[in-house]
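Bumping with the actual sequence this time:
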Amino acid sequence: MGRRPRAGVVLAAVVALAAAVVPAASAHEGRAAPKAPATAVLDGARLQRTKIRLDHGDAGLRHALAGLTARADGWLDQGPWTVVDKPKPAPGGDVHDYLSQAPYWWPSQPATADNPWGCPYVQRDGQRNPEVDTGTDRQDVEKVFDSSYDLALAWYYTGRKQYARKAADVLRTWFLAPDTRMNPNLDHGQFIPCRYDGRAIGIIDFSQSYTSVLDAVAILDTGAPGWSRTDRTAMRAWNTDFRDWLLNSPFGTEEGAAANNHGTFYDMQLAALAYATGDGDLARRTVLAARSRRIDPQIAADGTQPQELARTRSWHYSTFDLVAYTRLAAIGRHVGVDLWAYRGPDGQSLFKAVGQLLPAATGAAPWPYPELEFHRFAASDVVHAAADAGDRAARAAVPRLEAPPGGDLWALRPAAEQLDSIAG
């Protein structure tokens, strides 16, 4: 909260600098200053400053903007998607309930008329069963998350109405329209055929990316065409119901107690939902509690993450957990908590955890732990986040990072994403 006056001073300086270098007869003359969106993870004031730089022809941002608009253009002829069009409803029979299948569980027997699923299912950690991408909502909801985020950002930076209208259509169809909306629960996430109708672990289907929807909505709320006050009110109500389900349901309670990346992502999602729905106290408590509840037991004194190193995809999961931490730290910024500054009783910190990735992230050394499919670029965003938070080693590493497929968009959406795919 105390950042606002300082952001205003910086904004004024940016405007003054732009006025000094742009001719008075600029095509942008008379354009109203863009609003700073009340984003949960992204820094709205930073987006506002970036928008002003783009409006005044900042050449350094053109390449990133081209990458973002290319992604947005790719969504224009896709979707919208709906939870009700899966081949079979979730257990219980309500087509409005979200359904996904556990990714690392496989049939152990041939499918027969008496055993059509090939049960019992057995676990193969890190090996994704292709069944999970057919017959459930998982792939479609990921498209909802990604498309609404890309389209909202592209509208904000370019002002092109088609981006905003498409984002609004995607969000209304999945979350709001009575015939196609999703119920605000994850009672049937990551079910295992013949074993569980749903599991608490399925919450991560949303927690790893749903905060992008929260930020997309906040961006559209600044005045996007096609996104009405009614939409805004209805989306806030959906998010409030979902927040309360996370807090009070047995699955939410169980996932919140998870000791690995599931718990980190749960906290990140809950804090973002609390902030977006006006419960700043809950958001602040959640971020504060993560210091002793998450960082202390999850990050070792040397910065390694032992629980993630034990996985067959140790590089993926080490970066994955830090995506949650860096996004949680970004939410903390909005509620007066500096998670980057925290030091645990053994010296644990987010800076140390990112530091453990730097040799492999820059190509200076191989990753020394098990990894089925190593992608150096997976760490790029979390290194950017540490650099922005003031870490000198991370700042020095940024020029040596490998850009992810599609290019480095950090300048336009400075919030960490999981850049490699576990489906890879």
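The tokens above came from a reply further down the thread. The longest helix spans residues 138-158.
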